[in-house]
Amino acid sequence: MEVCRFMVSVGCLAFLVTLTAANLPPGLRVRRRRHFGSCGEQEYPNGNICCLNCKAGTFVKSPCTTAGQRGTCEECDYGTFTEHDNHLQKCVDCAKCGPDQEVAEQCTNTQNTKCRCKAGRFCNPEEACEVCRKCLTCKRDEEVVRNCTFTSNTVCKKIPLKPGSSLDAVFFVLCVIPAILFLVAGGIFLKYKKKCGCRGSSEASPAVAKSEEVSKSLKIFGSKANHLTGNHNSKRVLFKPFLP
Q1: Residue 209 counted as domain residue
Q2: Residues 215, 34: Cα–Cα separation, whole Å
Q3: Using one digit for the tens of pLDDT, what is the confidence trace for 53-108?
Q4: What's this model's pTM, rounded to 2 decimal places?
Q5: Range of the domain at 153
Q6: Cβ distance 110 to 82 under 8 Å?
Q7: Buried b (16+ CB within 10 A) or exposed e, 104-134
Q8: Suppose 72 and one of 41, 61, 68, 231 were both cysteines; which one would form an S-S bond, judging by CB atoms 3.0 to 4.6 Å apart?
Q9: Domain count of the chain?
């Protein structure tokens, strides 16, 4: 019997506690729960109470002393920022662009510096843009489909061959090039042959000159002989005895 009375008393007490908790104001219920170490998404713990975060562009200079209140917030100095509601004790330093980057948007107290690659370079936005890569240059037999941007590389494609261009190329390789090589070889051969012919004529010239010199000497000797013979005959006529 006493056990039954005890169980009824415990049940009634539990019902009264549940009913009382349900009728409490929402703020009171939250404070009681937060007292045990659980704060809301936009709050941060300070001892046994929860304080509201400071707004973006500010930081917590001193926390609150009353639960559910915002402490003393101070605006970020130049060159620093906080992008979201926070409970930071100081603002974050603004980023500096790399040597292969340029400033796209300046840093503010609520936004970090935004950098982009310099002209002729790109960086994939889905990756950590620590290094900008050089844009691709299309080859001679390619054409540009899409130019390089700050966030995408150049897109190239092969230039389609015109009808008959492949046959022209085959004709050039099989006919024109061998003909050019043949002409060059023929020119070299003729030049070499001409050079050898001049050398042979220069070697025979001394014999020809000697033959001409002998012939000239014989002509002179013959003319002198005829002259002497003529004088001798005239003398014979002059000294011929007179016959009556």
Answers
A1: no
A2: 143
A3: 999 999 999 999 999 999 999 999 999 999 999 999 999 999 999 999 999 999 99
A4: 0.49
A5: 120-162
A6: yes
A7: eeebebeebbebbbeeebbbeeeeebeebee
A8: 61
A9: 2
